[in-house]
Structures are given as structure tokens and as C-alpha cells.
Amino acid sequence: MGEVITMSHGSGGRLMHRLIADLFQEAFGKGDGDDAARLPAPAGPLAFSVDGFVIKPLEFPGGDVGKLAVCGTVNDLAAAGARPEWFSASFILEEGLEIDLLRRVVASMARTAREAGVKVVTGDTKVVERGAAEGLFITTSGVGPIYDGTDIRGDGARPGDFLVVTGTVADHGAAVMMARQGLELSATLQSDCAPLAGLVGAALTAGLEIHAMRDPTRGGLATTLVEIAGQSRVRIFLEEERVPLAPPVRQACDLLGLDPLYVANEGKMIVVLPPGEAGPFLEIAREHPYGRQAAVVGRVEGGEPGVVLETTVGGRRPLVMLEGDPLPRIC
Amino acid sequence: MGEVITMSHGSGGRLMHRLIADLFQEAFGKGDGDDAARLPAPAGPLAFSVDGFVIKPLEFPGGDVGKLAVCGTVNDLAAAGARPEWFSASFILEEGLEIDLLRRVVASMARTAREAGVKVVTGDTKVVERGAAEGLFITTSGVGPIYDGTDIRGDGARPGDFLVVTGTVADHGAAVMMARQGLELSATLQSDCAPLAGLVGAALTAGLEIHAMRDPTRGGLATTLVEIAGQSRVRIFLEEERVPLAPPVRQACDLLGLDPLYVANEGKMIVVLPPGEAGPFLEIAREHPYGRQAAVVGRVEGGEPGVVLETTVGGRRPLVMLEGDPLPRIC
Fold it and tell me: CA–CA separation, A329 vs A52, rounded Å?
């Protein structure tokens, strides 16, 4: 067993300064040593978002808490029509955490940040006693300029719009739950954890008109659609057989007794846009590594706000918000 | 015992939405329901900072984790010469946390945010199982415009500058440690936890030239001065007898065996500025409720970078960075 985190790493003193220099600055670059970062004057409005990550286990097939912490906030900013640019990273470390594990997680964050084009410019580290946390919690916040001329919000869906999902659903939650149970159904069962800034940016710089966008994380596709339907006061029809679902994920959900429509994704976007924009969007998305299986999965109509699932066998049933908690600690 | 947090409050489903609406939106105002907030185009450069708060106990004389979480990030932004404006708040809640306690903490955050003139515009909530965290961890990040014409940084101290502290030291750490030990030395022993945006803003809008500024939290006055001396490559002389110290805090430090120069503050600023600016700064600070006991406590010289304490009895000794961890979990 290698070096571990001690309470002294959180005291504000010499060990903390060394941890910051050796580990965080090594990965994220050296700032000027001040508590706040300076951002140049932006040309227009900004999006600002935050997310905390408490996933168990800290490393899972397809990612780890660090990659997830970057992707989560990148995707929230992308969903607001923004280009993620500046990030903060705040760590709560448990005494006894292996520094090698922390180093891997931080390296994974830095790698993902580079891929997404974001700079981690400010951070914080706290240490809590053994037993007071589970290894490592990360909170990231991010700021980035909103693409010119875009006005994307959860209340923007309009009757007539099409509903696109950028790929298969339920991969993240299924992979994490199977890993947590110690089950291995298939080597191909992996979290979809990915930063979608590039894919979304490509669509927005191409001038596509998008009315609403959101990444379906906790609560899955169904809960996120219920949110959008409620905010936009529209009725959303989701066609079950059009929703991309990988066979091993379907098997895992069957085994775990989960409805894949309620299982979390960490590398997918729901995009609501005029019918004429759907074709061009799919073309752009499918050229992108994270959008190859993008598909139109439904449509927006007027009427009583809510979500209706058109099932594979030709039935219809309302989808409601997730009740209870089938999937704790998956992000 | 009232209602408590359950795992379902973190699932992304109906209970989480209700918690957000009833508790967080009630306190911070209702956003548009999206994952990212939109900030209007700022006129100039911004400061951006983050801080995590894991203090034990969650409520202490003079404050609570919520007030602290706002003050900590407000003060980091103020120290960068910025006016704190937009905040994120991210909560990690332990299953079993009393919702009444959470409500008090959130109300305290909202009160402090109003006082400091900041808006909490985006947030996140996660729930972890009983035993996986200690009740409640809060991470705040903040963004705000840097005051025109200011250039304040940790490496800005210059030989000839004066050193001002905006009031008594060690109040926060002493109050928290005494509370944690179940000791009550004096009813007047309280954390100094306070948002310094108003005080700093008054000095900056008056056009005072400030070279370096930092809030001496973890590691206390001594560690923070060592940081500034290192960044600015200067020698700082601190005059022990000039450092304001409340008698009950001195007693508490004696009892706990702590050097007050290494004990955390949460409502004080170290200000390094040209001698001619010190008088006007003290005048402004002393008119402010959080700066009544502001005092010049030392000076900056050239030479070997470091901090020298000129003791009350006329001796001199070097102050080094905090070693080890006399004060865990005080912020």
C-alpha cells in the first residue's frame, strides 16, 4: 500500500501545499497561487453550472469519478448552449485515501478537461477523518460563453418539434450497478461517460436551431423528458422502439430489474428541435464519436403537459417522474 | 424528531424535485429549472473561486456551515479585488440528516448571500448513505466582476508596503474548537465568520491602491503571510503586539495549546498596501461593522523571502508554514 491522505493534507499547511503542487498543479497546470482565478472579459452572456459527484465505486468500466466530474458539468453547460471554458474543482478527501488512486482520478479529470477544451483554473481540497466520507467526493463548477444567437432552455420545446437522443440509453447506470454488484455480464458493458461539448458545439456553430436540450443523467431519459414537458407545457411522445439500447445494457437492466428509460446516462443529450433541423443535426451528430447512434425518438405536441410512451407493441402509457430510488450513488 | 433526508431525495426523481422546490428555491429564489444559469455579459474581467466546507459541528457559536460556505467564497473573490455576484451551491447530504437542520443552514446561506449582495443561481444536491458522510458538506463557487483598475494578487506585495489586518485574529478556529470540545469559556467567544465584500468594495471604490490581499483562513495569519511572502519574494515583518486578539480568544488558545497566529479566521482580510494608503484604508475599514479593529500589524521589506515575528518582548523569530494539523475540520 502506497502513501495515503492524512488529516495534515487538509490543514492549510505545508503538506497541503505540497499535495497541491505535486498532484493538482501537475495535472491542471500551475495557477498564480491565489484563491481566485482571473477570467478575461467575455464578449457575451455566460452559462454557469455546478455538480457534485459521490459515485460508488470511484472507478468503474468506462470511467471514474474524475472523468465523470468533468463530463457532468461540461454537459450541463453544453445543454445551455454554452462552450465550457473555465472550471473549478473541489475535493473532499477521506483520511486514508490512497494517493495513487487520487492521482489516477486527477489525471483522468485533466485528460477529459483537455478533450473538452476546458481549463481547471481554481480548486479546493478538504480532508475529513476516516469514516467521515467515502474516499473521495468531487464538485466541479464551470463557466463558459453562450454561443451567439442561441436561446436554449428547458422551457423551449414547442408543438411540432422533433425529439433526438444522441445515442444509446442507460449505459452509465447499468455499467455502474453491475460493477457495484460485482457482476460482469459482458466486457462491452461500459459507462457512456463522455464530454459532449464538441458534438453540441459542432451543431451550434453550424447554425442549427435548437429549442431545448438536456443531458438525461439521474432519473434517466424518462424523468428528464417529464421535466422538459413540464417546463415547456407540452406533451411529449416517445417511441419506445426508436430509443437506442445496446443489447448488453438491455440484458443488465433485465437482470437488475430496471427500466432503461429511468437509468442514468452520462454522455448523451436530449435535443428538441424543429423537424427541418433534425436531419442536419443527425448528420452532424453521427459524424462525431459520441453521436454515431443518434436518432429521432419522438415528437412534441400540444395538449396536457406530460410524456406518453408509445410502446413497441403498439400501446400507450404515461411516463411519470422517477419515484423512490432504484439507483443510488450512480453519479 | 422531524422529517429526515432519505436516499430518494438524491435520486433525481419526485422527492428530489420537491426538496429543491420547497427548500432551496424557497430560500434562493426560483430559477428557470435548467441545469445551468445564464449570466448577463460582464463588462470586464471576472474572478472565479471555489471552496468546500466540511466543518464539524455544523452549527457553532457565530455561524453554521451555510453562513461559512457563503463567506468563504465571498471573501476569496473580495481578496481578488472582485465584487462577488453569482454563486453556485452544491450539497452532499447524508441519509438521516434532519430536514429542519438543513432548512436552518440554507436560510442562513440565503441571509448571508443577501447581505453580501450575491445571488445563488445554480445548485446541485446529492445524497449518500448513512455513515458515508457527516451530515452535510457544502461546496460553493462564485463569479464576480473585478473592480476597474485593480490588480490585486498574492505576488503583489512590495518592499515598503504596510500590512493591515481588518480585526482580531483566531476567533473562528478558537470558537469552533471550544464548541467541539464542549467547552464554554465565555459567551463572547464567537466565530468571526462574515462576508467582507462590503468592506473591501468600499476601499476599492474609494480608489485605494492595494497590492496584495488574502483572507487568512486555514493555517491562520502566519501561514497566509508565508504564502504572500513566498509569492511576492519579499520579507514580511509582523509585530506581535499590534496583532488584535480578543482576551477570550487568547484564553481559549492558551487552554487548547494553540498559537493564535496559526488559528483560522473567517471574517478577516490581510491587506498589503503602500504606506500612504494605510491611513485612508483604516478609516474606511473602521467605519465598517467588520473592520472596527483594523490595524497596521507589520511591514514589507526586501531580502530573503519569509516572515519574521517581532515578539512582544523584543525578540525576533521566523514564522514558517503550519506543520501537521492542530485544527482539523474547522472550515
Answer: 11
> Peptide bond preceding B57: is omega within 30 degrees of 0, i.e. cis?
yes
Render pLDDT for A2-39 as a digit per residue (tens, 0 to 9): 899 998 898 888 888 889 888 999 899 887 777 899 99
Report the complex ipTM: 0.93
C-alpha cell at B94: 447524508
Q: Which of residues 182-211 of A touch B (CB under 8 A)?
A: none
Sign of CA dihedral B188, B192, B198, B201: positive
Q: What is the reported pTM?
A: 0.95
Residue A248, min C-alpha distance to chain B (Å) = 24
CA distance linking residue A275 with residue A272, whole number of Å: 9
**CB–CB contact A50 B123 (8 Å):** yes
Q: Closest to A154 (Cβ–Cβ): which among B32, B46, B331? A: B32
Query: What distance lies between CA B135 and its chain's CA centroid?
Result: 21
- Residue A261 C-alpha, separation from nearest chain B C-alpha, in angstroms: 13
Q: Which amino acid is at A117?
A: G
Asked if the Cβ–Cβ distance from B46 to A34 is below 8 Å, we say no
Which residue in chain A has the smallest CA separation from B128? Answer: A329
Domains belonging to chain B, first-starting first, are: 7-145 (3.30.1330.10), 162-319 (3.90.650.10)
Query: What digits encode the pLDDT tens for the residues B276-315?
Result: 999 999 999 999 999 999 999 999 999 999 999 999 898 9
Q: Which of B92, B137, B321 sits opposite A17 (nearest CB)?
A: B321
**Non-local CB neighbours of B12 within 8 Å, separated by 6+ positions:** A217, A218, A219, A220, A223, A264, A322
Q: Is B279 helix (H, G, I), strand (E, B) or coil?
A: helix
**How would you class B173 by CB atoms within 10 Å of its CB: exposed for 0-12, middle for 13-18, buried for 19 or more?**
buried
Q: What is the torsional sign of CA A184, A189, A194, A196?
A: negative
How many residue pairs bridge chain A and chain B with CB atoms within 8 Å of each other? 280
Shortest CA gap A65–chain B (Å): 14
CB atoms A12 and B219 under 8 Å = yes
Burial A33-56 (b: 16+ CB within 10 A, else e): bbbbbbbeebeeebbbbbbbbbbb
> Taking a contact as any Cβ pair under 8 Å apart, which residues of chain B between 91 and 120 contact chain A?
91-92
Residue from B153, B290, B311 nearest B232 by CA = B153
State the alpha helices, DSSP H only, in chain A: 14-19, 25-28, 65-79, 99-116, 171-180, 197-205, 220-232, 247-256, 275-286
